[in-house]
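From: lab user (bench 3)
To: helpdesk
Subject: output format question, protein + magnesium ion

Hello, I'm new to running complex predictions and I'm not sure whether the block I got back is the full result or only part of it. Here's what I submitted:
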Amino acid sequence: VGGLGATEAATQETDNLITPLKLLAWQKAREAGFDREFSSFKAVSARSQLVAGRNHFVKAESGAEEIFEKVMERVRQSVKLSEEWDIAEAHRSQIGPGEAFGAWTSKPRIRDRWNTLLRLVAKRRHMPDVFEVCDARRACWVHADHSTTEFIARAAVATVNMTGLVDSFHAMPAPRFPEVVFLGWSNVGKSSLINALLHRTAVAPVSNMPGKTTQFHFYSINEKNAAFPQMTLVDVPGLGEAMADEAQTRHWRSTLDLYLKRRGNMLRQVFHLISCEVLLRRKRPSLLDMAVMEMCLRHRRDSEYTIVITKVDLIKSEEAMETVFQTMRRISARMSEKLGIRRVKIIPCSVKRIRGRILLWRRLWRSVDPELTLKVRPAKELKEVQKELDAMVEQGKIEDLSALAEQEQPVREESLNGLPFSYPQLMACDWLSSIVSVVDLDLN
Ligand SMILES: Nc1nc2c(ncn2[C@@H]2O[C@H](COP(=O)(O)OP(=O)(O)OP(=O)(O)O)[C@@H](O)[C@H]2O)c(=O)[nH]1
Ligand SMILES: [Mg+2]
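Helpdesk reply: Thanks, we reran it on our side. This is the complete output you should expect:
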């Protein structure tokens, strides 16, 4: 009693069981952005559980998939795109950033097609598919635009809630979801980047005066939407001198230090932002930046570490580009000399343009992807499980039910299989090629 039965193909009986839930499912789908009728509402598989009565977990097919497939097929069949797609497919293994394949295009017609495809894929909220479309578009040398990043954000983000606004380590909310922190000198664009990635204008307050963010902001993404990837983004006060007094800045630094050292393995990714402005002016990152960098690389083995060069739209000449370039080369050399690290991932980006946004999303996604995370469900009393299931059935929470059923299946092992085709290539491409491709584009 209490164990889940095996997954079985649905029968007429299971189909009858879910029919009354169609309206609820449709309402839910509408809330999530689905704007048509279901063309079908069929049970595809079912599992049952005997807990003083029988619970049925039924996976239903809504027809949305069908519509998607049809439209996608139509989009792909239109002559131009399908040709490009086929070429991209044929060159899948060889196409990487920097390899000549054609000239970049921003033609609205072609761009719109890719964005339509992306919008359709985004509705499925399956991020590897989203990245696959992005890769294919890039492989076809079609520029991304604001719609592209908007659809990526739509696929990944349903809700954003501020769940903590604190100024000491001990007041921080306990880590609930995989966490990503954005840190760096004051005014480098940490808050702006969070807004840009979420495709929201006013989540994190931004100012052109340094010292805007004065507390640690915890933003829970998709807190109550388990169908979306759940994560926490953390915006921190600037490391540098800002407008605050000496004591305040020292306090922030020690809080950050504690946070990085003690946050534990829920902290998955550190985005360390360094502004182009600073690199152009000082030709080297600050000692504080170097200390943070070393700390992360040496002590934060649980987290990924990425340097983000912000405001690359300010690079206006080839000399400026060369300066940024050489500075990054020096940083890389210093790190490899000191820590024996051969490669530090560096992503140049700009919130005024699209540059770097997709790479950042990919990097972010990689660190929070629930499929790469072993979920440990706490053992519960049978009665509790029963109550939970009853409540779900009563409220018609079909998605939660099927998520629960899904959870009982063996968790996939961490692997790169199934990730988008150029993912390893992109990861393998060092900062040199990524900065070249981005800056080249900016100068064109
Ligand atoms: N040109 C350009 N300006 C940017 C970019 N990103 C941010 N900015 C500007 O830089 C300024 C600072 O941005 P914020 O996001 O507040 O920086 P912050 O790192 O959060 O700053 P603090 O909260 O003070 O630590 C704002 O005026 C932004 O508009 C960018 O990519 N390009
Ligand atoms: Mg800020």
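A quick orientation on your result: The beta strands are 8-9, 42-50, 54-61, 160-166, 179-184, 216-221, 231-235, 267-275, 304-310, 345-348. Let us know if anything else is unclear.
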